[in-house]
Automatic annotation (TrEMBL):
It catalyses: urate + O2 + H2O = 5-hydroxyisourate + H2O2. NCBIfam families: urate_oxi (TIGR03383). Its EC number is 1.7.3.3. Transmembrane segments: none annotated. Pfam families: Uricase. 5-hydroxyisourate binds at T63, D64, R181, V224, Q225, N251. O2 binds at T63, N251. The keyword Protein transport does not apply. This is Uricase.
């Protein structure tokens, strides 16, 4: 026997928008071109009740229109940082959708560097970098805006000045101590700005990237956890505009390969770069 719950059925939280809008812009007002290569996702919140419950689309901005808008606004608004472009899109969508109360724009920027020819950066030829720049901007009809920036898929490694020692030993512990190991990780980061007015988003993004890499190199790492905290602290000390920062550091293990079996000495030269389960170390560093 099936039981039917009595009561009214209503529409719960909902949002809609367009994903994977691939906007590519070339700035070509001089011989030295610039490119922006973006994946944009737009998501709207508001009163979309009539569309869901009555099939009345009359107040809905089509997702196809949202896609067109991303390209159209790129002409005048995608001239600097992706954060500024996202803020312009949000202003637009809050205005354009009659029942829209909130909007989120998430952007992934793929990074292209100039190809160097005989030591000279080329004017219109580029090579795609590994690593991505991210931005998530939220806004509502009250005028509130929040800006989060990020880094994804930046693979870094150091061949020494890292260890893992004096950790808890109990019945199932087999791992030996080491004070000299390879430290490798694929950086994901996101951080929140405490304002969106008067911020040079490009300078700050480059600064966080630079500081992340610098601090990664500049100390003996007793653990990924300690390195995560040190990097976050260095970023917050340098940039008062940033309220808090989150890192995800998978520990991509490099295990010394046993060559003694073959009578070959292996003084931390030959490693197995594992695909096996990896450690995953994540955390926020924030202002108290
Ligand atoms: O930096 C590390 N943190 C850990 O928590 C951990 N655990 C482990 O087995 N190796 C490591 N390395």
């Amino acid at each position: 026997m099936t039981e039917t719950k009595k009561g009214r059925i209503v529409l719960g939280q909902n949002n809609y928008g367009k994903s994977e809008v691939r906007v590519f812009r070339v700035k070509r007002d001089t011989e030295r071109h610039e490119v922006w290569d973006l994946d944009v996702r737009v998501s709207l919140e508001g009163d979309f009740e009539a569309a869901h419950t009555e099939g009345d689309n009359s107040k809905l901005l089509a997702t196809d229109t949202m896609r067109n808008t991303c390209y159209a606004l790129a002409k005048d608004k995608l001239t600097g940082s992706i954060e500024e472009y996202a803020l312009a899109l949000i202003d637009h969508f809050l205005e354009a959708g009659p029942t829209v109360t909130g909007c989120r724009v998430e952007i992934t920027q793929y990074l292209w560097e100039r190809i160097e020819v005989d030591g000279e950066p080329h004017e219109h030829s580029f090579i795609r970098q590994r690593g991505e720049r991210k931005a998530t901007v939220r806004g509502d009809e009250s005028g509130a805006r929040s800006v989060e920036a990020g880094i994804d898929d930046v693979y870094v490694l150091k061949t020494t000045n890292s260890g893992w020692e004096n950790f808890l030993r109990e019945r199932f512990t087999t791992l030996p101590d080491t004070n000299d190991r390879i430290l490798a990780t694929i950086v994901t980061a996101k951080w929140e700005y405490n304002t969106h007015e008067g911020i040079d988003f490009d300078r700050l993004w480059n600064g966080v990237m630079e500081q992340t890499l610098k601090t990664f190199t500049d100390h003996y790492s007793p653990s990924v956890q300690n390195t995560l905290y040190r990097i976050g602290k260095a970023v917050l000390e340098r940039f008062p505009e940033i309220e808090r920062i989150w890192y995800s550091f998978p520990n991509v293990h490099h295990i010394i390969y046993d060559l003694e079996r073959f009578g070959i000495e292996n003084d931390k030269e030959i490693f197995h770069a594992t695909q096996d389960p990896y450690g995953q170390i994540e955390g926020w560093v924030e202002r108290a």
